[in-house]
Structure formats: C-alpha cells, structure tokens
Amino acid sequence: MTDIVKPLLPRSFIAFVSRNLIIILSIFGFSGSVVAHFQMLYTPETAFTRGQATQFSMVFTHPVHGGPHMDMDPPEQFYVVSQRGGDAKPKRTDLLKYVKPVDWLPNHQVNTKQVAEDGLQNSTKAFSASLPRSVIRSLGDHIFVLQPAPYYESGEDKYIQQFTRTMINVGGVPGNWAEPMGLPAEIQAYNKPYANWTGGVFRGRVLADGKPVPHAEIEIEFINHKPDQENNRFAAAGEVELPQDAYGTQTIYADDQGQFTIGLPRAGWWGICALAVGADTEHEGKPLSQDGVLWVQVKDMK
Amino acid sequence: MKYQCQRSSAVLSAALCLAFSAYGHSPVCNCYNDEEDNSKVVCEGGFSDGGSAEGVAVRVLDDRDRILINDVMNADSTFTFTKPDADFHVIYDAGPSHQVVIYMDDIE
C-alpha cells in the first residue's frame, strides 16, 4: 500500500498515518471491526491479605492496543457490594463521591515533541477513584460496579454502555463473588476473578437482568499495555506482539445456557465483554448496546 | 503447648493475620482500630470456605498470657473490645491447630 501512495503523498504524511493508524481507523469508523471497546475498572491488585487504600482507574479504551481511548462522561453509578462469608448479608456502599475526572494520555505521548507536531494526540476524559482503607478493610469479597453513561460511537452511529465489574478479596474469605447482581448486562463468575493461575481457565455465564443469555457474543482482550495510574496513561510498548487483529480481540459465543469457558494463557488482566445483551436497545434516538464486562486477574505460579 | 501454637502461628501469619492448616478450611481473623471510636478494636473472623465465625472463641491476653477478655464472635462474625491499658494480643480460637494470633502492633 505504501508503494502505491508514495508518489501521491508526502513522506511525512505517510509516516504520520503509520504512527496513528489505530486512531485514524477509529475516527473513520473501523473501530468496531478492528478492536473492541472495553470499559476498564482497573486497580493493580485484587487479592489482598489485609484491607488497604485502593485506586481505581476508569478508562474507556481498546486495551490490547493501549488505545485509542474514548471520552467518558461522568459515571452514572459507582458502588461496591461487600460480603464476608457465604452466609453474611451483602452490604452496598455508594462510591460516586470518590470519582474524579482525569485526563488519560495516549500511549504515544512518550515523545511529547512528536505529539506537539502531530497535534492529534489529545488526552481523553477518564475518571479515577482513590478509595480509603475503610472501603476495603473487611475480610471477604468486594465487588465494584461501574455504570458509565452511554457513549456515542460515531463510527457505528450507536451508543455503548458497559456495566463493568472488578472484584477484590481480602484475606481469602469468600463472599458473593459468584452471586448474580441483577444488572442489565452482567457476566456471572464461575471462578473467582481474583484468584487465577496462568494456564487455567475461567468460566462464567452471561446474564441480562439476572437471566441467562443463550449464545451471547463475547469478546475477550488482554491488557497488553500496562496501566500507569500515576501518570494516567498506558505503557507505550505492548507485552505481546499480535500476529493479526483476530488475536487481539478473541471472540466466542456462549452456549445455550449462556455459559462459556476461556483459557488464561498469560499473567495480567483479561477483560471479558458480553455484547448487546441488555434489554434497553435505544438511547436518544440511536441504537444502544448494553454490554456486561468482567475483569479477571491472572498470576504466574512461581 | 498453647504457647508453642501461638508462636508458630505468629511466625506463619506474621502481619498477614492468617493461619494455615492442612484442613480444607483455614481460620482467618483480622483486627483493626474502630474508626468511630479509637479506644476500641474490631476483630472480624471467618474461614477460607466462607463459613460463619459465629460462636468461635476469642480471647484478649496480656504479654504474660493472662486472659483479659474471654468471649465469642457474634452473629456478624465480629468481636469488638476496648483496648487494654497494657500490651495485648488476640487469639481467634477455632479449635486445635485452628488458632490465629494477632499482636497489638499489627492492629492498624
């Protein structure tokens, strides 16, 4: 392709396109077929021996490529449901008061001079929540739920709203990790999302309002560019080189009970997203995709 | 024997406040300062299989292993006590080889 356009376009433009191919594809509406949108609800550690202060980063992005990121509006809900032991009552705590806007930088921002020259590498609107120790102090499971505002994806002329869950455990005492929460779109965990070895499998079930969704389409992505919460950006270099785009976003379908199994071939974070399973299909006159996202942390056996 | 168990538990759990055993369920206990009343300590008990700690014995002892408080975990699997004036430690006693010791210095 480069050979064809070379005589017609300046070398600097070709270089610019090469550097920003993903962003340009996104702008021109190819993002849906090339990379998957994932609402991140990231924190570095999910299995604590004792409770501690925790920071969450909320970025709407394409994690396997480290971008491009999409501007988020203020979340509609952010809360935690905690439960210590299987027989205890779950306790819900609203956390919206901790949510603050942040400018999330593109991972290309390593070379700031280049960014200034290009002029295209703007930061995107994301959110952060620094939670005090009192929120994650008790033994048991703490299930964090982020309900973002619907995001308008111009490339597909539709809205996307991803109900996102990340689970933290303190002390190894289990709680409500496997319990459905009745969200509009949800992935019920059949494995503890905070306790997975590399090479294991993760099982789950796709639910909408608590009911299984047969044959739901599911996308899986690895956080290939390590998040840098201090500087609100991802690492410029990915951990894994993708042979081809189909490797970046793994697509599977649930069975007739809405159940699925995936492999966990690498330590780190894996996002699982069930597409368009929610009952609401329209927002402000446009199609709406209500997705359910669950994040799974994987560790090496050392 | 009790002393040995306490010491070995302390070595195993150190700051983690956990005790491990060959059983399928391990006792877990965590104590922290009550944020609403700093004169008090809250201890939470549980098991690695999610079982309730209601009725599990819990004792507060001084540095000579003299029992200051002898009680049990409540229906919420918690136990709250007023900090003694002297150095103390807490034993969460779920039976033989199922004891967790938490020292005062590990309570935040």
Describe the protein.
The complex is a heterodimer of chains A (302) and B (108). Chain A is mostly beta strands and 302 residues long. Helix content of chain A is 12%, strand content 40%. Chain A has one domain (36-299). In chain A, strands 2, 4, 5, 8, 9, 10, 12, 15, 18, 20, 21 and 22 form a twelve-stranded mixed β-sheet that branches. In chain A, strands 1-3-7-6 form a four-stranded antiparallel β-sheet, with no helix packed on it. In chain A, strands 11, 13, 14 and 19 form a four-stranded antiparallel β-sheet that branches. In chain A, β21 (282-283) and β22 form a beta hairpin. Chain A is globular and about 45 Å long. Chain A starts with a helix and ends with a strand. Chain B has a single domain (2-106), classed as Immunoglobulin-like (Sandwich). In chain B, the strands form two sheets. In chain B, strands 4-3-6-7 form a four-stranded antiparallel β-sheet. A three-stranded antiparallel β-sheet of chain B has the order 1-2-5, with no helix packed on it. The interface between A and B is medium-sized, with 19 and 20 residues.
